[in-house]
Amino acid sequence: MEEAVGACREELLTAQPGGGRSTELLTEALPRDLALQERGVRQRTLYQHAVRTHSPTLAYIERVSAKGAEIRTLNEVFERMIICDRSVAFIPDHRHERHTAALAVEHPGIIQFLVTSFEHQWVRAEPVVYRSAYQRPQLLTDETRRAVLQLVVTGYTNEAIATRLGISSRTVATHIQRAAELLGSRSRAQLCYLLARSGLLEDEHADRVAPSRS
Fold it and tell me: Which CATH number fits domain 141-203: 2.60.370.10, 2.60.40.740, 1.10.150.120, 1.10.10.10?
């Protein structure tokens, strides 16, 4: 996989769900990705909103963005995937318990399906933009809170919400507590009812979070 990514000539599409990346992985990826930019490869990467508060990942994003890489974030991201030049893709092999193995896909039809899925998420995602070398992108708190509450109404547990959005269970609980205090709710069931009536989850961007159990 590393060899294929390093050999990209035109385009690299990456979806990385979860929170911030480890410092070790970022240190390893940075010189490779900077080299891709130097060769004129268009690099687009999707993360979850949680990376906007993770300093090591932000430092990496700042470096590659300065060279032309495009980074966007979503509350939710589909399965991890890497697509090189639309000719080979790598997806998780879930037969392995820790999901550390990847499957290489070269079938044109499957690759086109993966590219279409990526593009669908890309147009719904928020760009990570730096106005200066010293200005970090803001965390989309309102959108994250809305996503948490939408998943609460759908029936997800705090732990499931945290996993899905790439944030901590404590952060999930804080968002829920604040909503409960605002609406005067005394139970989770009552909170769901009040949220549905309040209109707090209605927003022009509400379709960005489409809860799914698939």
Answer: 1.10.10.10
The contacts of residue 36 (CB under 8 Å, 6+ apart) are 6, 8, 12, 43
109-133 tens-digit pLDDT: 999 999 999 999 999 888 887 654 4
d(CA 172, CA 137): 21
CB 89 within 8 A of CB 105: yes
pTM: 0.68
Q: What is the largest CA-CA distance in the chain?
A: 58
Q: pLDDT band for 175, please (50, 70, 90 cuts).
A: confident
